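User: Structure tokens for both sequences below?

Assistant:
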Amino acid sequence: MFRSTNELNGYKVLATDGDCGTVQDFLFDDVSHIMRYLVVNTGGWLTDRQVLISPVAIDQPDLDSYELPTVLSKANIEAAPAVETEQPVSRQYETALASFYNWPVYWGSSLTPVMNRPTASVELEERVAARDGDPHLRSVNEVTGYKIQCMEDTIGHVEDMIVDTESWSLRYLVIDTRNWLPGKKVIIAFDWLTHFTWEDHKAHLDLTRSQVENAPTYDPRLPVNRAYETQLYDFYGRPTYW
């Protein structure tokens, strides 16, 4: 099931025994393109506190009531290690959070599924990441608005991201080209990004400006289904993921 992160932002998050806050942001791995955490604002329930919840604890979103059910109780969430979301999320904190909830860790592997088991490289990676935060963990809110750098020039900005809520893989990046092509939005597969540059707020593609200009128009009111995906991959001449 594909969902827009803009749409999911603001969804009510439900513990097993009641409302526990709203989705405020998402943290994703910029190498594997997997959503690692939902940032939940607990509002008046836990004053001025934000919590991170892994997708392994989330059920499918309820599109009618704009709710995200979890398998956690409010007591679980309240007792979890606190996080300062203004600071980089350290591997030390992630380890403590995974240990508290008994979640499997994901680092130290090829990172295809939402979570994976650790490998022998974890100890070294923990020592590095604990100092400055996980260098590959990025905020969706931060990346939204980044300029799109094609092979020749910038052509627009990141408007939204589309996530598969079955695997919590980031599938597509929505590009608004209105500062170049008035009113047109297009999407590209996350796998076609070459890299982000954080210092100048850019997402880099190995596509030409002409390719993006002539790409199938994206209408956010319509679902991204297999027919649209096939049209998109055929246009770009890229192998499909399915």
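Moving on to the next sequence.
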Amino acid sequence: MSTIQKNIEAIYKTLSENIRLIAVSKTKPIADLQEAYDAGQRDFGENKIQEMTEKSEQLPKDIRWHMIGHVQTNKVKYMAPYVYMIHAVDSLKLLKEINKQASKYNRTIKCLLQLKIAKEEEKFGLNGEELIEILDSEIFKDMKHLEINGLMGMATFTADTSIIKNEFNKIANLMQDLQPKYPFLNELSTGMSGDYQIAITKGSTMVRIGSAIFGER
């Protein structure tokens, strides 16, 4: 059994059935992704559309591709034919483009709205008011080729677990508060290799893990 297969098995032992593992495969060669696929992994996350598109053309077609990086609207057209879920949606403008491009292929693309929970200025995301503004907008309600399934957040890069716990709490509590009015919000994508176990205790349903599977980049 390969190291990648062993790592995947070890991680799955820490996850309950309702938590989906997204194998973050950015910068990794096709051979590594194939090993993960052969171990049963089907959800892969990339942060560059060009790289994800090239990999999607070379790997089995039943892979569910997750775009987890920041998305420029002019790049959406390249992944619209195949992407399964876009995690980092942070504007109504981007949603409109996703809907427009998905309609060309008569597809429905799953989306998560990214909430800014970290302290770092360079992290993207909506605040609570902007989030509700999108969910209540008539433009969003008229979109037929996308689904908003939940929220995504990235914690501050820090060794201080109290900060991470507070940030994961913030997004989990917000989603819980919003669910009665917006019952379609049922996926929470938080947690990466260094903090996914904290994320799980705070209600995460998707964890994005790269280095703990494939090794450091």
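User: Anything stand out in the second?

Assistant: The chain has one domain: 3-214.
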